[in-house]
Amino acid sequence: MGAFPADSVGLVTPRKIVIDQALALDCGRTLPQHELVIETYGTLNAKASNAILICHALSGDHHAAGYSSETDKKPGWWDNCIGPGKPIDTNRFFVVSLNNLGGCRGSTGPSTINAETGEPWGPDFPLLTVRDWVRSQALLADQLGIRQWAAVVGGSLGGMQVMQWTIDLPDRIRNAIVIAAAPKISAQNIAFNEIARQAILSDPEFHGGRFYNHDVIPSRGLKLARMLGHITYLSDAAMRAKFGRELKAATPSFNYDVEFEVESYLRHQGQAFVDRFDANTYLIMTKALDYFDPAREFGDDLSTAFRQAKAKFLVVAFTSDWRFSPARSREIVKSLVSAGRDVSYALIDSQLGHDDFLMPLPQYHRVLSSYLARITEEET
Amino acid sequence: MGAFPADSVGLVTPRKIVIDQALALDCGRTLPQHELVIETYGTLNAKASNAILICHALSGDHHAAGYSSETDKKPGWWDNCIGPGKPIDTNRFFVVSLNNLGGCRGSTGPSTINAETGEPWGPDFPLLTVRDWVRSQALLADQLGIRQWAAVVGGSLGGMQVMQWTIDLPDRIRNAIVIAAAPKISAQNIAFNEIARQAILSDPEFHGGRFYNHDVIPSRGLKLARMLGHITYLSDAAMRAKFGRELKAATPSFNYDVEFEVESYLRHQGQAFVDRFDANTYLIMTKALDYFDPAREFGDDLSTAFRQAKAKFLVVAFTSDWRFSPARSREIVKSLVSAGRDVSYALIDSQLGHDDFLMPLPQYHRVLSSYLARITEEET
């Protein structure tokens, strides 16, 4: 037990929450029941007013902090930010992290069994929206006895969920921490997603999404999708700093084997992803990204959308992020200001690109710490 | 005949040049003979001192200007720039445009017949470098009786060939016009190329490059590669301006059919490319891009490399180009200045991205026109 660092939440065990209420989805279909796998860190206070929800991004899951076993070498994906004394301080807050509906880490999704057929859902699993996730997360909050989150926090696609919370369920969120996000993705972002999807959909081993029944996975397509994602998570400068354009050998090989370090990195990242992620979930996640557009039902005016909100906002962007650039975060801030909302904005000097929202950059963590330190635990 | 615009070179007919000299390649192999398909516009003067070579980019070919038939609706790929009275003025210059070795529009390449086997070369065709192309183009110049080009002109990968000419054959080029290029591609660029290659190589219908014998083409992979290329040719802003994030229908379809205009555009571009381009050529072109690094044999010092050069330089970059950004062109300019070379630099205000080097932007064409107007027809 003493093996874990002192500022770690230590050993964590996920649990499965069965949500028996029907969930009506934006696509028009209804899930009569669904399950969400969660982890929690810290202790819920008597008034249930100190809860923070962590919303994950495209490939994230419930395992945000701590270690899954005594011998686990790698902690959760946001362990540098969540723990005793860390920016999201588990001495003070009760932190809830979930695998979203549609995910592939135990929550109901395309790779789980459809009770109606006894087979994996596969392509029959409904496409989801960020609104659907907020609805599902609200049912989760009900089940946990949390009427109002002290804060909802998320980066990238997670930040979109945070914004949607403030608009759809304004009384249930006191603080919204929106990191490296955008009010909606750009045509270029959609284009990248579309290529990733086509890579998966056109893989002969995708079998129309029913690859589970064929004992194969569409590994070529999923690998390409992940490799492409990686380019957009890193800045050009970061790639240059990390790999330069170093040849692995002294001279070119004049064949299609790995020649440059960056190729080796990408192939490795792609393969590692294939081993842990589900292709149908990847498709669902990219579509949710494409669909996200909270201004749409408010006459395409984001500030009108944010007039629904009651939360206080912290918006964080990173200088080197070209996937969701600071300009996109400023659009969010501008709309919040127009809507008369209470908003703080931090632009963090960074090198790595979009992935910096996962990094323990001191300036970034100070911003989060000082914002969270001012959060009252009183319900509003 | 009167159907063509007055400033067009009109009807053009490609011709095949057989080059019987052996060509030693950087990979160590030698081609005993090769053929290049070319078009020429304008008239070579008696001293053969008014010739301009056009070097094409990744997916280009010899058909740069004019019309291939009386009923041809679309002129060559750079028709807006080449013709009587146009920036590359065929009233004054004799313009040579070729399909590079390794191409797929008639020049010797992977889809042509290997005399040794009587079958298409396929994967047995050697990987090429920009230096190899310069060697091949020099043999072409010999055959055409051109000792020294008045100018060599190219954008993107074409610009790299221009730079290599100045370093490898300094006495044979008086002016170098390097457009939207880079001294070597970045790790991010290599990463994009690698994903494009993996898309093709992993397509089951690639058959190790011998798809010709199977009566199929690796269309899925080639389509993905082209879609990905397109994202990098256009700026985020251009994509936004062109497609916004408009849904094709009033509401989302919640399936994987085309939903956004940008998806429709990309799929169309991908399919059109599959119908006209060869997958092995695409692989060869991307590798040549990756390998290009003229500073490498000069102690990684580009200015030392450029000390070989005798040409005058015009370097042109475009503000909205993120594939080969203005910063990369400034690296070229800086090295040329350090090397004591005569260099002009123009940064063109643009919106579209990398593709702007093909567009008739007035500022851009004025820069080309005025530079070319000052070119003397005298050999040096």
TrEMBL record, chains A, B:
Gene expressing this chain: metXS
One BP term from GO: methionine biosynthetic process
Quaternary context = Homodimer.
Q: Does the keyword Isomerase apply?
A: no
Which Pfam family, just one, is annotated for this protein? Abhydrolase_1
Where do transmembrane segments lie in this chain? none
Q: Indicate the enzyme's highest-level EC class.
A: transferase
Role summary: Transfers a succinyl group from succinyl-CoA to L-homoserine, forming succinyl-L-homoserine.
Entry's EC annotation: 2.3.1.46
Residues holding substrate = R226, D355
Q: Which reaction does it catalyse?
A: L-homoserine + succinyl-CoA = O-succinyl-L-homoserine + CoA
Q: Which GO terms describe its cellular component?
A: cytoplasm
Q: In which pathway does it act?
A: Amino-acid biosynthesis; L-methionine biosynthesis via de novo pathway; O-succinyl-L-homoserine from L-homoserine: step 1/1
Origin: domain of life: Bacteria
State where it is primarily located.
cytoplasm
GO terms for molecular function, please?
Answer: homoserine O-acetyltransferase activity; homoserine O-succinyltransferase activity
Could you identify this protein by its name? Homoserine O-succinyltransferase
Mind listing the UniProt keywords for this protein, alphabetically?
A: Acyltransferase, Amino-acid biosynthesis, Cytoplasm, Methionine biosynthesis, Transferase
| AB hydrolase-1 domain: residues covered | 51-339
